[in-house]
Specification:
The chain is mainly alpha-helical. The protein has helices spanning 4-16, 21-31, 33-46, 53-69, 78-118, 124-137, 143-148, 156-165, 175-185, 189-206, 212-221, 232-244, 259-274. The protein has two domains: 1-137, no CATH class; 139-278, no CATH class. Helix 3 (33-46) packs parallel to helix 5, helix 8 (156-165) runs parallel beside helix 10 and helix 12 (232-244) packs across helix 13. It starts with a helix and ends in an 11-residue tail after the last helix.
Length: 285
């Protein structure tokens, strides 16, 4: 099977052949460019060899050419042009910064990525995707870098990536830091909504009893949602059950003895387990 990075490069070549905004939009949808791009770049971030350096370099160049071409693409009406500027151009910019980080990872490895993160003159998106690539790779000696960003004063995207990276460093006992971070953002509802799933996912993966007091509190005070990934109570129930073996009293399920409750938690835990190795990119402006 052809690696996604090669298919992504080919899809970008197809986009460059579009002669109008409408044609580019049709090709974008038919080629599923954005999803393919993120899948390809995620694999390039993870790759420990330089075997994809040339194609990643080509992808970086193709993305830059597309960004240069977009403003000059003719459109039959104003709507397609506005759609390109509003949606496709920012998406391509994010992919280009991510591709640049992947190229650094391919050429210079962890040391190169850390250099980009430390470069305060670099664009924020470029630094973020280098940081994200480090989180995806989670090299053994990078924990102090991630730990520095586990604070609400850090940019939310960096803080979120650091919270996700923490799950890969159980030997560093990061659970208390994650609990402190949750407490620090508890009253900031927007930041809490963003960080809570990442913090609780890492606490689940780490399986550290230090998380029990927080999770038991969330059983009665946590936010609820139909989606288990965004339900603090469900996540807390799964963590508490994994550590104590019991489904404890909570605000979501009045009768914890019901079989339907056990099945719901089993399904939620399976979902969390499947996504436990993921580090999720976010939009950085």
């Amino acid at each position: 099977m052809v690696e996604p990075i090669y298919r992504f490069a080919e899809s970008l070549r197809h986009l460059l052949r579009a002669s109008t905004a409408e044609e580019l939009e049709r090709r974008w949808d038919s080629l599923d460019v954005e999803e393919l791009g993120w899948r390809a770049l995620d694999r390039a971030w993870r790759a420990r060899t330089v075997r994809w350096e040339r194609v990643v370099d080509e992808v970086d160049g193709l993305l830059n050419r597309l960004l240069d071409r977009l403003p000059r693409l003719p459109a039959r009406s104003e709507a397609p042009a506005v759609h390109l500027r509003t949606f496709r151009e920012p998406a391509l910019e994010r992919l280009q910064h991510a591709a640049a980080a992947a190229l650094v990872a391919q050429r210079f490895g962890t040391a190169g990525l850390r250099t980009v993160v430390a470069d305060e003159e670099a664009p924020l998106q470029r630094r973020y995707f280098a940081f994200l690539a480090l989180a995806v790779r989670h090299p053994r000696r990078a924990w102090p870098l991630f730990a520095r960003y586990l604070t609400p004063e850090a940019h939310h995207a960096f803080c979120g990536a650091a919270a996700e990276a923490a799950r890969f460093y159980p030997e560093e006992r990061p659970a208390p830091l994650l609990v402190e971070l949750f407490e620090a953002v508890r009253s900031d509802l927007h930041l809490r909504a963003f960080l809570s799933p990442r913090i609780l996912e890492s606490l689940y993966v780490l399986g550290d009893p230090a998380a029990l007091p927080l999770c038991r509190e969330l059983l009665v005070s946590g936010h609820t949602a139909a989606d288990p990934e965004h339900c603090e109570v469900t996540r807390a129930l799964v963590i508490v059950r994994s550590l104590s073996g019991a489904i404890e009293p909570n605000v979501k399920y009045p009768d914890t003895e019901l079989e339907v409750v056990r099945r719901a938690l089993d399904q939620a835990e399976e979902l969390f387990r499947q996504k436990s190795g993921e580090v999720t990119p976010v939009v950085v402006m």
